[in-house]
Amino acid sequence: MNNPSIVFDKLEIRAKSEQSNPALDRISIRDYIKEVEIGAFQVERDLTQRVKFNVVVEVSDSSSSSSDDVDDILSYDMIIEAIDEQLNFERLNLLETLADRVSEQILSHQQAIRVFIRIEKLDRIPGSLGVEIVRDCKNSKHDKDKSIITPSIVFIPNEIIQSNDLKDWLDAIAQYKKPTIICLENFFIPQKISLEIDSHHRIKLLAIEQAAWDLAGKDNRCVVVDTWTELDWSMKNNEVTVWAPSKMILDAVNKPSLKSEPLDLAIWLADEFNTDYIYHVGPECDYPNVQLISSPDFFK
Question: Is the pTM of this model over 0.85?
Answer without folding.
Answer: no
